[in-house]
Amino acid sequence: MELFDTHTHMDAPQFDGDREEAIHRALEQGVTRMINIGFNRETIPTTMKLAESYDFIYAAVGWHPQDAITMKEEDLDWIAELCKHEKVVAIGEIGLDYYWDTSPKDVQHEVFRKQIRLARELKMPICIHNREAHEDVVRILREEKANEIGGVMHSYSGSWEIAKMCLDLGFHLSFGGPITFKNAKQPKEVLAKTPMDRLLIETDSPYLTPHPFRGKRNESGHVRLVAEAAAELKGVSLEEIAEITTRNALERFGIL
Protein backbone atom coordinates (compact mmCIF):
# COMPACT_ATOMS: atom_id res chain seq x y z
CA MET A 1 0.00 0.00 0.00
CA GLU A 2 1.26 3.45 -0.99
CA LEU A 3 0.00 6.69 0.56
CA PHE A 4 0.68 10.20 -0.80
CA ASP A 5 0.59 13.14 1.64
CA THR A 6 -0.08 15.99 -0.80
CA HIS A 7 0.40 18.83 1.69
CA THR A 8 2.82 18.88 4.60
CA HIS A 9 5.22 21.24 6.39
CA MET A 10 7.85 18.84 7.65
CA ASP A 11 10.39 21.68 7.53
CA ALA A 12 8.49 23.49 10.31
CA PRO A 13 10.35 24.31 13.54
CA GLN A 14 8.08 21.86 15.39
CA PHE A 15 10.16 19.07 13.80
CA ASP A 16 13.59 20.49 14.58
CA GLY A 17 14.14 17.90 17.34
CA ASP A 18 13.09 14.77 15.44
CA ARG A 19 12.52 15.54 11.75
CA GLU A 20 14.34 12.48 10.43
CA GLU A 21 12.50 10.22 12.86
CA ALA A 22 9.12 11.72 11.90
CA ILE A 23 9.86 11.18 8.21
CA HIS A 24 10.89 7.59 8.97
CA ARG A 25 7.61 7.05 10.88
CA ALA A 26 5.72 8.22 7.78
CA LEU A 27 7.51 5.64 5.67
CA GLU A 28 6.58 2.96 8.20
CA GLN A 29 2.91 3.98 7.84
CA GLY A 30 3.04 3.44 4.09
CA VAL A 31 3.67 7.03 2.98
CA THR A 32 5.78 6.75 -0.16
CA ARG A 33 5.55 10.37 -1.34
CA MET A 34 4.85 13.77 0.14
CA ILE A 35 4.75 17.36 -1.07
CA ASN A 36 6.28 19.89 1.29
CA ILE A 37 5.01 23.44 1.00
CA GLY A 38 7.25 26.51 0.97
CA PHE A 39 5.06 29.58 1.34
CA ASN A 40 7.24 32.60 2.22
CA ARG A 41 10.82 33.87 2.36
CA GLU A 42 11.67 31.65 5.33
CA THR A 43 10.04 28.36 4.34
CA ILE A 44 10.85 28.20 0.64
CA PRO A 45 14.59 27.54 1.24
CA THR A 46 13.90 24.93 3.95
CA THR A 47 11.34 23.24 1.69
CA MET A 48 13.82 23.07 -1.18
CA LYS A 49 16.48 21.62 1.12
CA LEU A 50 14.06 18.92 2.26
CA ALA A 51 13.05 18.05 -1.32
CA GLU A 52 16.68 17.80 -2.34
CA SER A 53 17.50 15.59 0.65
CA TYR A 54 14.83 12.90 0.14
CA ASP A 55 13.89 11.21 -3.15
CA PHE A 56 10.25 10.84 -2.12
CA ILE A 57 9.69 14.46 -0.99
CA TYR A 58 8.59 17.00 -3.58
CA ALA A 59 8.14 20.75 -3.24
CA ALA A 60 5.49 23.38 -3.90
CA VAL A 61 6.59 27.00 -3.70
CA GLY A 62 4.44 30.12 -3.50
CA TRP A 63 3.43 33.07 -1.35
CA HIS A 64 0.85 32.53 1.39
CA PRO A 65 -1.98 35.10 1.62
CA GLN A 66 -1.08 35.85 5.24
CA ASP A 67 2.34 36.97 3.98
CA ALA A 68 1.02 38.74 0.88
CA ILE A 69 1.98 42.18 2.18
CA THR A 70 5.67 41.15 2.24
CA MET A 71 5.85 39.91 -1.34
CA LYS A 72 8.03 41.83 -3.81
CA GLU A 73 8.49 41.46 -7.55
CA GLU A 74 11.82 39.72 -7.02
CA ASP A 75 10.02 37.09 -4.92
CA LEU A 76 7.78 36.29 -7.88
CA ASP A 77 10.88 35.99 -10.06
CA TRP A 78 12.40 33.69 -7.43
CA ILE A 79 9.35 31.42 -7.51
CA ALA A 80 9.48 31.36 -11.31
CA GLU A 81 13.14 30.34 -11.24
CA LEU A 82 12.53 27.61 -8.65
CA CYS A 83 9.75 26.15 -10.79
CA LYS A 84 12.47 24.97 -13.19
CA HIS A 85 13.74 22.62 -10.46
CA GLU A 86 12.86 18.97 -11.10
CA LYS A 87 11.44 18.51 -7.58
CA VAL A 88 9.06 21.51 -7.72
CA VAL A 89 5.64 20.25 -8.80
CA ALA A 90 3.24 23.13 -8.01
CA ILE A 91 2.93 26.81 -7.12
CA GLY A 92 1.44 27.10 -3.66
CA GLU A 93 0.14 27.53 -1.24
CA ILE A 94 -1.54 30.62 -2.63
CA GLY A 95 -5.01 32.07 -2.17
CA LEU A 96 -6.98 34.17 0.30
CA ASP A 97 -7.24 34.18 4.08
CA TYR A 98 -9.92 36.36 5.66
CA TYR A 99 -9.54 34.79 9.11
CA TRP A 100 -6.14 36.23 9.99
CA ASP A 101 -5.92 39.98 9.57
CA THR A 102 -2.26 40.10 8.49
CA SER A 103 -2.52 41.34 4.89
CA PRO A 104 -5.19 43.69 3.43
CA LYS A 105 -7.69 41.99 1.14
CA ASP A 106 -6.72 44.05 -1.91
CA VAL A 107 -3.07 43.06 -1.45
CA GLN A 108 -4.03 39.41 -1.06
CA HIS A 109 -6.07 39.60 -4.28
CA GLU A 110 -3.20 41.16 -6.23
CA VAL A 111 -0.63 38.61 -5.01
CA PHE A 112 -3.06 35.74 -5.68
CA ARG A 113 -3.72 36.96 -9.24
CA LYS A 114 -0.03 37.43 -10.00
CA GLN A 115 0.76 33.87 -8.93
CA ILE A 116 -2.10 32.38 -10.95
CA ARG A 117 -0.82 34.25 -14.01
CA LEU A 118 2.68 32.96 -13.37
CA ALA A 119 1.36 29.41 -13.01
CA ARG A 120 -0.53 29.71 -16.31
CA GLU A 121 2.60 31.03 -17.99
CA LEU A 122 4.67 28.13 -16.62
CA LYS A 123 1.86 25.57 -16.98
CA MET A 124 2.13 24.60 -13.30
CA PRO A 125 -0.77 23.42 -11.12
CA ILE A 126 -1.62 25.58 -8.11
CA CYS A 127 -2.31 24.70 -4.49
CA ILE A 128 -5.06 26.88 -3.00
CA HIS A 129 -5.27 28.12 0.58
CA ASN A 130 -8.81 29.34 1.24
CA ARG A 131 -9.96 30.41 4.67
CA GLU A 132 -13.35 32.12 4.96
CA ALA A 133 -12.99 33.54 1.44
CA HIS A 134 -14.84 30.96 -0.68
CA GLU A 135 -16.71 33.27 -3.07
CA ASP A 136 -13.74 35.53 -3.77
CA VAL A 137 -11.41 32.56 -4.31
CA VAL A 138 -13.73 31.02 -6.90
CA ARG A 139 -14.34 34.38 -8.58
CA ILE A 140 -10.61 35.11 -8.93
CA LEU A 141 -9.88 31.58 -10.15
CA ARG A 142 -12.53 32.09 -12.85
CA GLU A 143 -11.39 35.57 -13.81
CA GLU A 144 -7.76 34.48 -14.07
CA LYS A 145 -8.67 31.36 -16.11
CA ALA A 146 -7.17 29.00 -13.57
CA ASN A 147 -9.12 26.19 -15.24
CA GLU A 148 -6.34 26.15 -17.85
CA ILE A 149 -3.92 24.71 -15.29
CA GLY A 150 -6.08 23.35 -12.46
CA GLY A 151 -4.71 22.41 -9.09
CA VAL A 152 -5.76 21.46 -5.59
CA MET A 153 -8.13 22.98 -3.07
CA HIS A 154 -5.97 22.29 -0.02
CA SER A 155 -7.67 21.11 3.18
CA TYR A 156 -11.07 21.76 1.66
CA SER A 157 -13.53 23.20 4.18
CA GLY A 158 -16.29 24.79 2.12
CA SER A 159 -19.78 23.71 1.11
CA TRP A 160 -20.69 21.22 -1.60
CA GLU A 161 -21.99 24.13 -3.71
CA ILE A 162 -18.55 25.79 -3.67
CA ALA A 163 -16.90 22.38 -4.16
CA LYS A 164 -18.89 21.84 -7.37
CA MET A 165 -17.62 25.19 -8.69
CA CYS A 166 -14.04 24.14 -7.93
CA LEU A 167 -14.57 20.76 -9.60
CA ASP A 168 -16.01 22.54 -12.66
CA LEU A 169 -12.77 24.56 -12.82
CA GLY A 170 -10.80 21.32 -13.00
CA PHE A 171 -9.55 21.32 -9.42
CA HIS A 172 -9.03 18.37 -7.10
CA LEU A 173 -10.30 18.48 -3.51
CA SER A 174 -7.87 17.50 -0.76
CA PHE A 175 -8.98 16.48 2.72
CA GLY A 176 -7.06 16.17 5.98
CA GLY A 177 -7.51 15.67 9.71
CA PRO A 178 -10.92 17.36 10.03
CA ILE A 179 -12.67 14.44 8.30
CA THR A 180 -11.75 12.35 11.37
CA PHE A 181 -13.43 14.80 13.79
CA LYS A 182 -16.76 13.68 15.20
CA ASN A 183 -18.41 17.09 14.74
CA ALA A 184 -17.00 17.89 11.26
CA LYS A 185 -20.22 17.26 9.36
CA GLN A 186 -19.61 19.41 6.27
CA PRO A 187 -16.18 18.11 5.16
CA LYS A 188 -17.41 14.55 5.60
CA GLU A 189 -20.48 15.23 3.45
CA VAL A 190 -18.39 16.93 0.76
CA LEU A 191 -15.82 14.12 0.68
CA ALA A 192 -18.60 11.54 0.32
CA LYS A 193 -19.85 13.39 -2.79
CA THR A 194 -16.44 14.11 -4.32
CA PRO A 195 -15.73 12.02 -7.44
CA MET A 196 -13.05 9.42 -6.78
CA ASP A 197 -10.86 10.73 -9.57
CA ARG A 198 -10.71 14.20 -7.95
CA LEU A 199 -9.97 13.10 -4.39
CA LEU A 200 -6.67 13.73 -2.59
CA ILE A 201 -5.53 13.34 1.03
CA GLU A 202 -3.10 15.34 3.14
CA THR A 203 -2.01 16.14 6.68
CA ASP A 204 -1.05 19.85 6.65
CA SER A 205 1.32 18.76 9.42
CA PRO A 206 2.19 19.96 11.99
CA TYR A 207 -1.38 21.36 11.99
CA LEU A 208 -4.89 19.83 11.80
CA THR A 209 -3.96 16.64 13.62
CA PRO A 210 -6.48 13.84 13.09
CA HIS A 211 -8.31 11.94 15.80
CA PRO A 212 -7.17 10.30 18.10
CA PHE A 213 -4.09 12.56 18.25
CA ARG A 214 -6.00 15.84 18.06
CA GLY A 215 -4.32 18.53 20.16
CA LYS A 216 -0.85 17.11 19.53
CA ARG A 217 1.62 17.81 16.75
CA ASN A 218 0.59 16.38 13.40
CA GLU A 219 3.04 14.57 11.12
CA SER A 220 2.92 13.03 7.65
CA GLY A 221 2.51 9.48 8.92
CA HIS A 222 -0.95 10.43 10.20
CA VAL A 223 -2.18 10.65 6.60
CA ARG A 224 -2.99 6.96 7.06
CA LEU A 225 -5.70 7.98 9.57
CA VAL A 226 -7.10 10.40 6.99
CA ALA A 227 -7.10 7.61 4.39
CA GLU A 228 -8.92 5.29 6.81
CA ALA A 229 -11.62 7.92 7.43
CA ALA A 230 -11.95 8.60 3.69
CA ALA A 231 -12.29 4.87 2.99
CA GLU A 232 -15.08 4.60 5.56
CA LEU A 233 -16.92 7.61 4.13
CA LYS A 234 -16.61 6.23 0.60
CA GLY A 235 -17.49 2.68 1.60
CA VAL A 236 -14.32 1.19 0.13
CA SER A 237 -11.18 -0.42 1.50
CA LEU A 238 -8.16 1.46 2.81
CA GLU A 239 -6.10 -0.12 0.03
CA GLU A 240 -8.47 1.22 -2.63
CA ILE A 241 -8.40 4.75 -1.21
CA ALA A 242 -4.60 4.62 -1.01
CA GLU A 243 -4.32 3.44 -4.61
CA ILE A 244 -6.80 5.98 -6.01
CA THR A 245 -5.56 9.03 -4.12
CA THR A 246 -1.93 8.21 -4.89
CA ARG A 247 -2.71 7.80 -8.59
CA ASN A 248 -4.68 11.06 -8.57
CA ALA A 249 -1.76 12.90 -6.96
CA LEU A 250 0.82 11.49 -9.37
CA GLU A 251 -1.31 12.59 -12.32
CA ARG A 252 -2.26 15.98 -10.87
CA PHE A 253 1.35 16.94 -10.09
CA GLY A 254 2.86 15.31 -13.16
CA ILE A 255 5.10 12.98 -11.17
CA LEU A 256 6.32 10.02 -13.21
From TrEMBL:
Gene3D superfamilies the UniProt entry points to? Metal-dependent hydrolases
Q: By what name is this protein known?
A: Hydrolase TatD
What Pfam families does the annotation carry? TatD_DNase
Metal-binding in keyword set = yes
- Which UniProt key words apply to this protein? Hydrolase, Metal-binding
Q: Which GO terms describe its molecular function?
A: hydrolase activity
